[in-house]
Design goal:
Residues 50-204 form the HPP transmembrane region domain. The chain crosses the membrane at residues 47-68, 101-120, 178-199. This is HPP family protein. The protein has helices at 22-32, 36-40, 45-70, 79-88, 97-117, 133-153, 160-168, 175-198. 38% of the residues are buried. The protein has one domain (3-198). The two termini are 25 Å apart. By secondary structure, the protein is mostly helical.
Length: 211
């Protein structure tokens, strides 16, 4: 089926040039806001890339603005892959609010526990000092705990593996910073919910949608 075969007002039956649900999201948003030019090119790689570009700026830009206003670290590396999951494959279990929020919470908790176990809660970040045996142990333990706990709890969310290393490497190590980290995750999930629902994607409110 080509784009000319798609009747007006219907979502495309093919996933677009790069797979995932991004084409359906762009098509849905274009229809809602009556952007006929985008509607006619919903399966264009150029349009998909433009959407990813703009949405990435909005997603992280909003967090950066909050960070600037509050002086708190609302921007951290694992938000990037989480944002891509929410807008590229929103209907996968790993992208659901439950997996995203609980996965990052597990990662943060495992990272902090590893700091406690190796006595690194007051140590400077590994990137600012030398890498010690204790730091290597904390990083390994945190990633192992995160991976195992997500499997046991049935909430896999790959970017949580980055979150736990951010903590176990000492980049974020204060409990207050971890609380801010989780607020940032919540804000990103809220953005994902709003944009996907506006596009007509039945993004779940909590648990993954049934297969």
């Amino acid at each position: 089926m080509t784009e000319r075969d798609v009747p007006s007002g219907r979502r495309p039956e093919q996933p677009g040039p790069i797979g995932g649900d991004m084409a359906a999201i762009v098509f849905g948003l274009a229809g809602r806001f009556r952007l006929d030019a985008l509607n006619a090119r919903h399966d264009s790689t150029t349009v998909m890339g433009l959407f990813a570009f703009v949405n990435g700026i909005i997603a992280i830009g909003a967090m950066a603005a909050v960070a600037l206003a509050t002086g708190e670290p609302f921007v951290f590396p694992s938000l990037g892959p989480t944002a891509f999951l929410l807008f590229y494959t929103p209907m996968l279990p790993a992208s659901s609010p439950r997996n995203t929020i609980v996965g990052h919470a597990i990662g943060a908790a495992a990272g902090y526990l590893s700091l406690v176990v190796f006595g690194l809660t007051d140590a400077a970040p590994a990137l600012a000092t030398e890498v010690t045996g204790g730091r290597v142990g904390a990083a390994a333990l945190s990633l192992g705990l995160t991976s195992g706990a997500m499997v046991w709890a049935k909430v896999p969310h790959p970017p949580a593996g980055a979150t736990t290393l951010i903590v176990s490497l000492g980049i974020l190590r204060e409990p207050s910073q971890l609380a801010v980290l989780m607020v940032a995750v919540l804000l990103l999930v809220l953005q994902g919910f709003v944009i996907n629902r506006l596009a007509g994607i039945r993004y779940p409110a909590w648990s993954p949608a049934p297969a």
